[in-house]
Amino acid sequence: MTARPPALGASDKLTFLLSLIPYLMDHDSVTVAEVAGHFGVPAERVREAVRLIAVSGIPGETHQYLDGDLFDIHWDEFEEHDRITLTHLVAIDDSPRFSAREAAALIAGLQYLSSLPENADRDAVASLMAKLSRGASGTPTQLAVSSPDSDAAMSVIQSAGRSSVQVAFDYLNARGEHEHRFVDPLRLESVDNDWYLRGWCHLRQAPRTFRLDRMSELRTTTEPVGSHDAGLVLPDTLFQASDDDLSVVIELPASALVLLADYAPARATTPAGGDRVRTTLRVAHYHGLKRLVAGLAGLVTVVEPAEARQAVADWAAAGAARYDDPSGEA
Questions:
Q1: pLDDT by residue (tens digit) across 129-183?
Q2: Contact yes or no for 257/299 (Cβ under 8 A)
Q3: Four-point Cα dihedral 35, 36, 40, 42, nearest 10
Q4: Which of 19, 313, 66, 122 is closest to 27 using CA atoms?
Q5: Where is the WYL domain (predicted)?
Q6: Which of 37, 70, 91, 265 could form a disulfide with 57 if both were Cys (CB 3.0 to 4.6 A apart)?
Q7: What is the rounded distance in angstroms from the CA atom of residue 254 to the CA atom of residue 291?
Q8: 255: Cβ–Cβ under 8 A, 6 or more apart, which residues?
């Protein structure tokens, strides 16, 4: 005699049904055995649930259950081949859906998240993107987040993150110095078009941020990451001050301060006339100001020290000289 599966309470049956219906909607046709294996329940329990679904629905305007008010399945496939295929859905089709534009925006965000090393389960992300596409009220715009130039470096870092090993590379810092680093990769982040690795630097014995386009000879190692990872909390801001940093006073519109959140969170400001304010940044090297000023062109003015102003002025003059030189060489 075949043992019957243990009886389920009403709440357990409801939970199983609420999980089973979305699963069946995501699979055009699936066998009873596949469903049973997915949910870890006996096959007979799946069959009972499918039979219950087929007599469930929402009464129409007549308050009676007519054919169009019930779920339906392909009965021949179910009874002869033990295969489940939903042929009619009720209520769920009428639930609110993302618009095509909303779904496209969410899919783009998921594509970005899938590039981060901590999100190693790409299959789960791909499945969620497929669900968003199917569940939208219209066909989402076909788009893709463009791959950065540092794609190869990101691939190496992601591989190291999945294997929990260190990466090694030669690094050109802001002062123009080359150093060999061994780093536990923790996170990849972007600011505009630049990508950064945040990790535990074994040379400095502290968290550090590295620009991917300043790395060379990047490779994974066989050295495991340190045990500090479990308790290490990365700051919310990308760039962190150090004792060796240099102070620079800049002036900009008060409304643009939010654009400096990664560089100078919660910095004190002083009025500079009109809607402009002055604040102080800490940078590793005055030449690092060039990218900041270029990214906020026309908004930021370097006030002091003189060396910082000169570094930015020389850089701007070199760029302008290219427009005056017919050969294109400064």
A1: 776 666 665 666 665 555 555 678 888 998 898 899 999 999 987 667 889 999 9
A2: no
A3: 160
A4: 19
A5: 154-219
A6: 70
A7: 20
A8: 275
Query: What does pTM read for this prediction?
Result: 0.44
Q: Which of 288, 318, 298 is nearest to 252 (CA)?
A: 298
260-314, pLDDT tens digit by residue? 766 655 567 788 888 899 988 877 777 777 777 877 778 888 999 999 899 888 8
At 33-90, the pLDDT tens digits run 998 888 888 899 888 888 887 666 555 555 554 555 566 778 888 888 889 887 766 5
All domains of the chain, ordered by start, with CATH?
A: 10-94 (1.10.10), 100-135 (no CATH), 151-230 (2.30.30), 246-324 (3.30.70)
For CA atoms 218, 219, 225, 226, the dihedral sign is negative
199 - beta bridge partners?
185, 208
Buried b (16+ CB within 10 A) or exposed e, 219-247: ebeeeebeeeeeeeeeeeebbeeeeeeee
Q: Which two tokens stand for residue 221?
A: 């190692």
Six token digits for residue 45: 């329990």
